[in-house]
Amino acid sequence: MRLRVRRRWFNRRRNEEARDTESPALFSDVPSSRSFVGDVSRETSPKQHPPTSHKPAPFRFMFHVKRRRRIFTALALAAIPLIAACTSTTGSTGWAPPIPDIDDENVVIIRNDDKKISAIDLKDQTELWRFPGEDDVFPGLADSIEFKAFYGAPVPLGTDPEEFVVAGEEGGVVYAVRYDGSSARLLFDTEDSIIAGLVVEGLTIYVATTDKNLYAINADVPETITWQFQAFGGALWGTPALVQTEAFGQLLLVPAMDGHIYAIRTDPTLAESERLAWEFSGTNGSIAANVHVEDGVAYFGSFDRHFYAVDIETGAEKWSANGDNWFWSSPLIVGDILYAGDLEGSVWAWNKTTGNAAWQAPYPAEDEVRSRPVLVNDGDTLLVIAKSGVVHAIDPVTGLNQWTTVPIDDDVLADTLIVAGRVLVSNDDGDLFEVLFDLDIPTVLPIFPPLIRRTEQTPPGEPRSN
Amino acid sequence: MEFLGFIWSDLLVNPMTNALIVLTNGLFDSFGLGIIAFTLIIRGATYPLTRRQLRTTRAMQEMQPRLQEIQKKYKDPKRRQEEMMKLYREVGFNPLGCAVPFFIQIPVWIALFQVIRRTVGTSPEALLDLSGKLYEWSFINEAVPLNSNFLFLDLGNPSIPLAILVAVATFYQQKFSPRSPARDERTASMNRTMLWMLPILFGWFTITVPSGLGIYWLITSLFSIVTTYSYNGRPRLSLRWFVSTDPLPVVPRGTATASSKASQNQSNAALPSASNGDSNPVSDGQPRRRRRRRRRSRGAAGDRPEGTETSHGTSEQ
Question: CA of B242, closest CA in chain A: separation in Å?
């Protein structure tokens, strides 16, 4: 058997070699070592050559040296943009959602197109300030700063907030910035990247990093760790949730990419070994979504295409439901119904207590849903914005479509903000849009940068001066 | 356009993406091993095309003396072109034989590059993008994100030592690649520049991209070195060759039959030999494998004299 295989291999190899050397003219100077069976038929003598001039040869045009050079140069030049397009990398832009200003409801803080934080006046559609400013410097900070992306939302700091805290992904530095944009201060440098949102309780800030670290820091004592927990099994990408339990006191529910939810006791007097209250390991996929807690139950989705409800006192699973793809969006709970979208574009509605489906079928948004659903129009319309930028209005009771808009320019992954009755959406480019749903034809209007610059606007009744 | 997108995504990139994750799963959840195995499989699958390319390049290389002779001999461009065509036809050489396999392989390489870049999942956006490419099989979804630690590398981040390895491997890949002899000093100078420029370029790329892609380039270069070396008859290489800028010595595949050899000797008497001036370190100009085979056949044939008619009706030399 082995011999036969070897012989077959040898025959094949021999044929290949014979093919390779089908033109003896190439090797005429080389002393021939052997000839093969069947080589007679391949012998090439001048007599056997076909006439050269009568029959046009295939690819004859290629034989012209200059033309061939031009063709190959053209092909190579054409290949460069093709290769560049195909190998282009997905850049990090972040999906930090806009937040309202504490004092002025007409001002929102957004992640802008320059990977910085901006305060936007919604009335004037103008930028009030940006952090960091020109040349990446900012009052109160000694060094220049350069951000790669913002994923977590800025969070108000303290009980009577004058500052918000924000962390850029690369570098993992936590800053406190004054709402009026007058100054900022460095709070803590994790020397790691931060994708999870910050959690703030009074002056204590909880920072979860991709390097499996959870830090508790105090805003009054910058650059000092109050306590730290490092026994996570995976990177921390989802925003933790702070909850009060009867059994353990205050807990921080930390989702991790190892598919576990870690319940960490926040009491600063505890040793690291005493911090873990419970651990939920019932998922088979990573958890990158934020944890949402309501009525003693933690809700979150996983990469195993399931959505989970877990008791915050014990860490026991209450229910789980199937999705069509990974869950990365935060859920919205209204009354007894929980709404969540998955990355297949399916929007689901479940009973928050039982996990039973509330709609006959999931709503097909036809593109990934990372943005959290919001309820508008006095609770009559559920707005879901797909990654494609299409705004879907869904009947929250039946799950049927009410209307859809044309896509917003660029992807939308950030959560939607409702402030003073206005629905604001931020896209990947950091542009701000408003969803106008009470018009005859619901539409999406650019807020910042504005469609028409204010300086170019003409007052009603006055002719435009050219 | 949609059809092309379907072919690109659903028939090429998505299956490859899932296959890479399955491989990683099977190889102890090591993404590094997964990339290595995957690169080798893809390169192995496209080896027939690579082989064809090598064959054409080698034919071109060995045809150079005769081409140069034609260029010297015929000043009239039309006549020169005719003679070249005649030569191409005579030796069965297709100028597209080298380019077509190369261009067929380009989409596969780009897809492989994209797959690795995507599965490395360096940013949340990349991971989110990956979700739509995965099949519904639970074990695939559960494996993501992949463990990006491999040896001393974090496959999601660039690595300088790996960049150096890639540059060195690219340098030797260049050295091992068959090159047509330079027609003039300008071409020779360009060849020398390319020998240095490409490794620097690839080394620089490796510093700017995740190490997973660096591993891919490294394995691709090593695979290319091995296949080229093997295809070219595995010539013996001195230590000096490794530190020089000399190309791989050409081991001729002399298997011409007696009659054709005679006719070719006649027609090529004036042409420079393909092995003339060749710094082939192999003593008798033949690869070791062929010499072994010849010894074997000698043993089998005993002391049969040259040119003796065999049972197949051909003569063995």
Answer: 26
Which of A39, A151, A344 lies closest to B257 in CB terms? A39
Query: B274: distance to nearest CA of chain A, Å?
Result: 7
Check whether B279 has a pLDDT greater than 50.
no
Cross-chain Cβ contact B131/A325 below 8 Å: yes
Choose among B89, B96, B259: nearest Cβ to A62: B96
- Angstrom CA distances, A79 to A72, A338, B13, stand at 10, 50, 19
Asked whether this complex has an ipTM greater than 0.90, the answer is no
- Rounded to two decimals, the pTM is 0.72
Most confident of A52-61, A164-173, B29-38, B50-59: B29-38
CB neighbourhood size of B297 (10 A): 13
**What letter would DSSP give residue A250?**
E
Give the integer Cα–Cα distance in Å for A38 and B310.
Answer: 12
Classify residue B168 as exposed, middle or buried by CB count within 10 Å of its CB (0-12, 13-18, 19+): middle
Q: Name which of B136, B149, B157, B255 to mutate to probe chain A: the one with the most chain A Cβ atoms within 10 A of its Cβ.
A: B255
Contacts of A136 (CB under 8 A, 6+ apart): A144, A145, A146
Residues A419-439 have pLDDT tens digits of 988 999 999 989 999 999 888
Partners of A385 in the beta sheet?
A391
Q: Do A29 and B286 touch (CB under 8 A)?
A: no
**Interface mutation target, options B142, B266, B291, B297, chain A, most CBs of A under 10 Å:** B142
Q: How many CB atoms lie within 10 A of CB A369?
A: 30
